[in-house]
Amino acid sequence: MILTRRSLMGTAAAGLAATLPLARARAQTPTLKIGVLTDLSGPYKDLGGPNATICAQLAAADFGVPGKGFAVEILQADHQNKADVGAEVARKWFDQDGVDVVVDVPNSGVSLAVSGVAKEKNKIFLADGPATSNLTGAKCNANTIHWVYDTWMLAHSTGGALVKAGGDSWYFITADYEFGKALQRDTTGFVTAAGGKVVGASQYPFPGTTDFSSYLLQAQSSGAKVIGLANAGLDTVNSIKQAKEFGITQTLAGLLVFISDVHALGLQTAGGLVISETFYWDLNDRTRAFSERLWAKVPNRRATMDQAGVYSSVLHYLKTAADMGIDKAKLSGADTVARMKAIPTDDDCFGPGSIREDGRAIHPCYLFQVKTPAESKGPWDYYKLLATVPAEEAFRPLKDGGCPLVKA
User: Fold this and answer.
1) Distance between CA 134 and CA 402 in Å, rounded?
2) I need a labelling partner for 108 at 20 to 30 A (CA). Which of 132, 203, 258, 352 fits?
3) Are residues 237 and 385 in the same domain?
């Protein structure tokens, strides 16, 4: 249920006699409150946005709520890609609205701020949308779990594959905030370790940049074999479109590309791109089953890995809370996260997995190539699988992250 001021006032207008019995009934039913903090109006709207909230609702329905002896209430808010706004929303949710867990947050800068608030309030943050590997590195804490993907994984998979294919000189076009910087840093590490070099980089103001022409021309004149796009969402779409318009022939490395980006670009433009994802709707029978259930609620759209991560993380949280007992699960976010780490994960989006002590959710990663129009059999038939990176190899080794929770 998404609460709005209008719906709350409408409930009040129904009359005191009608609402008091309902209030008593609710008071007798334990309720878990989940806040979906996402981008509803900016460059990450399509990869997170309203469909992330629908995925959270689907997770509750698939778990069998109502019917498990407790209720789930789902709220939604826009972080506006501003760390202070995201932190303020999280603080209000925790302090005033009784929210137990915040999910999604597709913005690395905002996610670090929300992670800090969750730790301060001893609540829970399930990070599905952000990419910075710092969430399980130096900035890790006992109240945060990082789902889906991160900058180390993306650099290791996409960056590593392109270097092996001969892309040994790079120029980065980088969103100038936590995510872009972390992605450039992690990819640079893999390029240089493989004997390649970075010949230059341009950082652009985020959010708000829509014209990438000057950055693309600098990258073109650098002579680099690969132009690394250390950005995401609409920024990646615009970068690739404008590169095509300028006739740039260097390899474009979309280091974080979502199926929503491919859909926006079209296969005529996106065909041939090599990308990394941890979820694809048509990967196997389980992903297809989830996707058909979601399709019934959101026709003509397929979930991004971010949105699939919201489903997965909320489902695992509900399983854990039910196992612990709702009152106990609400008492301490850190204790509930510890129990979430102790219980194996398993869902239709990512299959079997686990959560490490640094808060990193572990599952396979897939290297895909975007199909050409001639290869596609129809709408949303976009990817062909090139390689699977096993779960134990897909993410940064535990010992290398610098997370203070990891015992030497």
Assistant:
1) 9
2) 352
3) yes
